[in-house]
Amino acid sequence: MSNQSNETVHLAIYNTLADWETGHAIAHINQAAWQREPGRYSVTTVGLDLEPITTIGGVRMIPDMTISDLNPADSAMLILPGASTWEDGSLAVFAAKAQEFLANDKPVAAICGATYGLAAAGILDDRLHTSNVDFYLAASGYDGAHNYRDESVVTDRNLITAGATNQIEFARDILGRLDVYTPEVLDAWYRLYAHSDASAFAVLAAA
């Protein structure tokens, strides 16, 4: 059964974006198979401006809209991939938008370098979180080191954080937060993609 009222998940894109970090999440947000409400979500890309960006893998992408035009009220979630440009402060406007999302009770998912940007903005000072490694975030000068957890992914209230090598766990928590799959199907999805568990496919086929 399709859902007539489509909701938009916004994916931030910028130069040096780490291609692998959001692939599982956005592919399965857009793929109707196994979903609780097929067609409920679509993905829109958001850039600093409308100029093409080049990912770390050399792929050119063109943003659908600019970050200045993004209103949290019009979004189901903001996803922030990693990129080397987070560390020099040039993506601070995306961290500011993440703060706006959280203030409006809208979820944000950040991985790898994006967690550095959120730390530098003070967003992780009062939330449980993770990243690539604790001393990576410590370099941002933030005050939230006591909230760091050495885990693959951490979800605290409306904020999902993960390290660069945990893209499947990151996707699992995104899909769960958006209620894309039933709990049984989400568990099977994770077992299949994270552990190549062939028995999980029967659950997905039945869905």
TrEMBL record:
**SUPFAM superfamilies cross-referenced by the UniProt entry:** Class I glutamine amidotransferase-like
Q: Which Pfam families match?
A: DJ-1_PfpI
Coiled coil: which residue ranges? none
Q: Which parts of the sequence belong to the DJ-1/PfpI domain?
A: 9-175
Superkingdom per UniProt: Bacteria
GO CC field? cytoplasm
**Which InterPro entries does this UniProt record tie to the protein?**
Class_I_gatase-like, DJ-1/PfpI, Prot/Nucl_acid_deglycase
Check the record and name the PANTHER family matching this protein: DJ-1_PFPI DOMAIN-CONTAINING PROTEIN, PROTEIN/NUCLEIC ACID DEGLYCASE DJ-1-RELATED
Kindly provide the name given to this protein in its UniProt entry: DJ-1/PfpI family protein
Origin species, per record, is: Antrihabitans stalagmiti
Q: What is the lineage of its organism?
A: Bacteria, Bacillati, Actinomycetota, Actinomycetes, Mycobacteriales
